[in-house]
UniProtKB/TrEMBL annotation:
This is Uncharacterized conserved protein, DUF885 familyt. It comes from Amphiplicatus metriothermophilus. It holds the Pfam family DUF885. Residues 1-20 form the signal peptide. It comes from the Bacteria. Keywords: Signal. InterPro entries: DUF885.
Length: 592
């Protein structure tokens, strides 16, 4: 999301804001509160205008004919706007705000200040990765927009008309990156052109962009439907496909020859400082890359002992490496079809749904579904991911399962994977956050350490609700935890310690049961998005620390459901804010 000016200072300020409110004269309280609300309203209106597709998903239809402006000029204008908001927030009289209002102010300031700080680095040029670009953004539109009325379809066609301009903006930004020496590593972009070519089709009916026109809504008369289909086909074939083909030519002729041979962010101009910033941004802590690397090594050693204990429990006779090879190669652990893999994930998801009352007293209203990862990105994409529900209730959350290369998708990982991506993981936390009585920006702000830390913590909750009953699924859980511990070592190794891609792959292969294909895809992901992978384990460790603290303090009065409610009731927040909130919750529980 957005990035931070002085994260350590911002975090310290936020710890203070959670404390008791400072009393102020009624007039001052009202004036400061109104000024803050004006800022929140102005900021949210600006965010919706800057992100028109997101606005539509929330039911705001003012920008239905637009795509985001991806130009460097628009980016620089947004940074300047962020500076203006920071100045307005700094001008507020903090003592005249309630504790909750100060928290709102500080969270928004941190979010905006991170955006300002990020602008001094070249990350603004890295607008494509091996996993996506303008072609995949456009291809996702049918799944992100409503298609219920004639106006919905007309707006969609209007967006398709401006798609060529959007693609050109991305190209120009990438050209600026080439000139500045900021490009993606060659190794993670291998085969990227295939994902572009997938969308260069001869007929509109072959394009995923035509998918909304497969079935006519009953609200649209047949005559209007024929007109809309014909117009969409014309725009796709004559405007969008040529633009995507042009992006493919640009990639082959200009960008691919300019990609870099190095893999670490520290190899780029000011790259070491940029990685240190991203480390703070994604973990919401002041931890250095060296400190995180050491934490990772300790976690790897701890989890390895637990994995070896599970191997002994299984009765397997052989070394750790031989057990890993057994899991990677025995056909009993792999689905025989895409349908079977989806069905097994869906079954585990539904089974988990039924156990949620053991973990929470409050539940999100929005449902979720299980779907495959889109074909055009599947081979270069991770095992699974989650897509949040539409804010206006028009689309459920989606748990995306990668059904490509079935011999790399072991069944013993499904329980941990599903608990992470669906419930009690991402869907539960994110869908609930969207329904909380909070300022709009807090419902959708993505503090990665909280969100991904919760996802990893959710995997461990399977132990509380009867999952992981056989040694193989339990080993799968530990392998997933080990995977995230390895990320602390590998990400910092790649971007701060000069590790090569091969060294990172070897470390992952030695310590996890992930398939070789998955390991390569994951390492390439860390190369292309340095710092993000640190958030999972750092966030999970904090959540486990807070749970243990609460259990010790409350003894027999500790209620796991109420603890989880307290963790999630503020939406996603920095870890320092979460810690202060839970400490306050513990004190309140003692007083009950």
């Amino acid at each position: 999301m957005l990035s931070g000016n002085s994260l350590a200072a911002g975090v310290a300020a936020m710890i203070f804001t959670v404390g008791a409110a400072v009393m102020a004269p009624a007039g001052a309280q009202e004036s400061a509160s109104e000024a803050l609300q004006d800022i929140l309203d102005d900021h949210w209106a600006w965010m919706l205008e800057e992100n028109p597709v997101f606005a539509t998903s929330l039911g705001v239809r003012d920008y239905d004919d637009r795509l985001p402006d991806a130009s460097l000029e628009a980016y620089e204008a947004s940074v300047e706007k962020a500076r203006e908001f920071v100045a307005r927030l700094d001008a507020l009289d903090a003592d005249a705000l309630s504790a909750e209002e100060r928290l709102n102010r500080d969270l928004l300031r941190l979010d905006l200040a991170q955006d300002v700080e990020a602008a001094q680095y070249g990350g603004k040029y890295l607008v494509i990765s091996g996993r996506g670009g303008p072609h995949t953004f456009l291809a996702n539109l049918p799944d992100r927009l409503p298609f219920l009325t004639k106006a919905d379809y007309e707006s969609y066609i209007a967006r398709l008309r401006v798609a060529p301009a959007y693609v050109d903006q991305v190209k120009e930004r990438l050209r600026a990156g080439v000139e500045a020496g900021w490009t993606q590593p060659c190794v993670i972009m291998e085969g990227y052109e295939k994902s572009i070519d997938f969308h260069v089709v001869d007929a509109a009916e072959e394009s995923v962009l035509f998918k909304p026109f497969e079935n006519r809504p009953q609200t649209i008369p047949e005559r209007d439907w024929r007109r809309l289909k014909n117009e969409a086909a014309r725009v796709i074939e004559r405007e969008v496909v040529p633009a995507v083909a042009g992006f493919g030519d640009f990639y082959r002729q200009e960008y691919a020859p300019a990609c870099r041979e190095t893999v670490g962010l520290s190899d780029l101009p000011d790259g070491a400082d940029y990685y240190a910033f991203r480390t703070r941004q994604f973990t919401t802590t002041a931890l250095t890359p060296d400190a995180i690397h050491d934490i990772g090594l300790k976690e790897v050693a701890r989890i390895r002992k637990e994995m070896e204990a599970v191997i002994a429990e299984s009765g397997f006779e052989g070394s750790f490496e031989e057990f890993q090879e057994f899991l990677r190669s025995d056909p009993r652990f792999y689905a025989k079809s895409e349908a079977e893999l989806l069905e097994k994930n869906a079954y585990v998801a539904k089974k988990a749904d039924g156990e949620m009352p053991k973990l929470f007293t409050r539940f999100p209203r929005m449902p979720y579904t299980v779907k495959p990862v889109p074909e055009d990105i599947a081979e270069a994409t991770t095992t699974a991911y989650y897509e949040r529900p539409a804010g206006d209730g028009s689309r459920a959350g989606v748990y995306r399962v990668n059904t490509s290369k079935l011999d790399t998708r072991p069944l013993y990982e499904i329980e941990a994977l599903t608990l992470h991506e669906a419930v009690p993981g991402h869907h539960f936390q994110i869908a609930l956050a969207q329904e909380l009585d909070l300022p709009e920006f807090r419902k959708y702000t993505f503090f990665t350490a909280f969100v991904e830390g919760w996802g990893l913590y959710a995997e461990s909750l399977g132990l509380d609700i009867g999952f992981y009953q056989d040694p193989y699924s339990n080993f799968g859980r530990l392998s997933y935890e080990m995977w995230r511990a390895c990320r602390l070592v590998v990400d910092t190794g790649l971007h701060a310690k000069g590790w090569s891609r091969d060294r990172a792959i070897a470390f992952m292969a030695e310590n996890t049961a992930l398939s070789e294909h998955n390991i390569r895809a994951e390492v390439d992901r860390y190369i292309g998005n340095g710092g993000q992978a640190l958030a999972y384990k750092i966030g999970e460790l904090k959540l486990k620390e807070l749970r243990a603290r609460a259990a010790r303090a409350l003894g027999p009065d500790f209620d796991l459901r109420r603890f989880h409610d307290a963790v999630l009731e503020n939406g996603g927040v920095p870890l320092s804010v979460l810690e202060a909130k839970i400490d306050a919750w513990i004190a309140a529980e003692k007083a009950r």
